[in-house]
Structure formats: C-alpha cells, structure tokens
Amino acid sequence: MIGFRNVSKNRAGSRVRRLAGAGMVVPLAVSALLAGGAGTSAASPGNGPTAVVSMGDSYISGEGGRWKGNSLTNSGSRTGTDRAWVSGSSYDPSKVYGATANGCDRSDSAEVRSAGPIADVAVNLACSGAVTDNVFRASNGGVAFKGEAPQADQLAGVAATNNVKVIALSVGGNDLGFADIIQECAYDFVLWGSYCYDDQQAVVTQKMDGVMAKVGTSVDEIRAVMRGAGYADSAYRIVLQSYPSPIPRGAENRYTQSDWSRLNTGGCPFWNKDSDWARDSLVPQIADRLKAVASAKGAQFLDLRDMMQGREVCAKASKQVTTAAPASAKTSEWARWIDSSQTQGPIQEDMHPNYFGQLAVGRCLSLIYAQPATGGFGCRNTAGSDQSGMYLAPAN
Known about the structure:
The protein is an alpha/beta fold. Helix content is about 30%, strand content about 10%.
C-alpha cells in the first residue's frame, strides 16, 4: 500500500475529531405530522386523509438535508450550499429541520416530503440514530429515544387518525454500527496507514444475523400495529429499503490516496481498498440481507445500493460547489462529506444523503409506489440529470 504521510499524530488527530460522529448512529428525537395536517379523529382504514409514513433511522429521517452539495467556503451561505444560512454568519437549522431541536433532524426534504403528492399527509416518525429497538412497541421491548415513544407506538396514533397507504422503513444500519465502521476506516487512513475492511468485515459478519432478525421483528411490529388499528395487510404496503453508499469506489475517486486531498479537500478520507469494500461488498451485503427480510415478511423492497452511483462524495462524475460551479442536482455531490475543518454544521450530518440525495430518494419512493405492491426494485440515477432522472430496475 502507499506509505503513510509524514505528519504527526497530534495534527492528524485534530483533523479527525469530526470523524467520531460520522455515519448513521446519531441522535434521535421527536415525532411529527409534517405535511398536510394531522388528520381527523373520524378517519379509519379506507376513510379520511391518506398518509405516507416513514420510520427508522437517519437515512430516511432527513439527516443532512441542510446541504445542497459540498463547498470549501466556510462562511456565509458556503457558496450557496447551506440552506440554514440567515445572513452574515448567522445560521438557523430549524429552517430545514423544524423547530424541535432534539437531534432527530427530520428535514423538509426528507424522503416522505420529497415523494410528491402520493398521499394527503406525510408523517415522518424516523429519527436520526434509531436502532430496531426504537421501532418496536414498548409492550414488546421497544425503547423510547430522545423523549419520544417507540416509533411503532407513535404509528398507532397515525393509523387511527389517517388512512395510511404506505410505510417506508429504513433500519438496521445503526444496529450494525455504521458510525463505528466509518470512524475506524477514517482513522486507518488518517492515523495508522492501515486498512479497515478486514477487521470491520469480521464485525459485520458477527452481527448480521441478529440484526436482520430484529429488522424482521420491526416489520412484524408494524404489521401488529396496523392490524390492531383495523387495517388488512392488503390495505397498505410496507416498503423496506436498503442504503446507498456515500463514497465511490477507489478508481472512481477524483482525489489521489497518496496525499491529504481526500481529507482536506474532498472530505472522503478512505483508502481505495476500503472504499471498494464499502461500495462493492458492505453495501451489497446489507442490501441482499434486507431483500431477504422483505421477501420473508411480505414487504416490498426498495434497493438503494446504486442510487448515488457517480454522485457520491469525491466521485469523479460530480463536483464540489464553487462560484464557477453553482449548486445543482445535475452536477453536485448528493451526499454530505466529512468536514475536516470542523466549521460547517454538526458532525451527525456527515455521510448522509444531502438535499439533492433526499430529493432523489423521494422520487424513488414515488416510483415504487406507482408499481404493484409486490416484489422489489432497485432505484438508479441518470448521469447528468437531477432527481427527475431516477428510474427503477429489477432489484439485484
């Protein structure tokens, strides 16, 4: 492998303090009826306002939706990328994430908000940092998080006051320890000059069966709540989705691994071998197992493994935002970088789909909802297009 750069560990360590919080294991919190109102008490299955509901973790709650691409500019609007900018050096994240500052980070561009008019009401119960235990009902071992009841218990109230048509679920990544994986791989690049894929694969392998069993229980819990509210299984659909990779393969990275550009400029401090493992092994492993859970539990599967192909952080096919290259879903990156400068927003946004990525996933949800409620599909982007270029293909 390429030799480790000649820098002190103290200097390198100061650059990676952000890395400890990167990934999906970030705070959860409050629930919300986010669009179209809260329904009516007279609603019931087949009556009242229709609703689309999202449940699970940060990849569906809207974490990272503050950002329209990534820019090296650290002041003002960050070259137009920071949607929380007010004026001068003033920023108000509630413009994107709402007034509740509990770390759930349910953005205005989150998947259920970006899916368009597929229902009268969009309800985002997902929370940044959620694990499967935060989805289960309290009566079945569910755990409250950030001041909120377990998500399945919240779903019961939504199902009673709306006519729920689709429930999108993204969960399991935090149970597998994505944040720890990202942190260890970044540390291996910045500090140790070693690879992470071998020892981290062992960790994932050890956890995988147990995590997938709990994902299956999450689906069971949703079914139980909906049956308790009077819904037949055929009256709505559960869409279980996988995760996209926020980083590209090594050969598709526009920055060399032999200097500090991946950390200081690109915000993607990972070796080629580790990048290849994440993109072509880890993400597909998780997707394949989630597909099996969906099939076993009668849920529809939305495969997002290739959703950000060419749009990842540091991908050759995309650009950082500059005055010469304005923020655009057609050219900018669709995932939030690791901000080694520590001057742009909170750590928990790192390595999540950004505003553009969330618009794209919302389009994926609308596309699969237009299909019969059986089987699975992969959602992919069209090079050089915005979210309108998303399309479905048979799931891998």
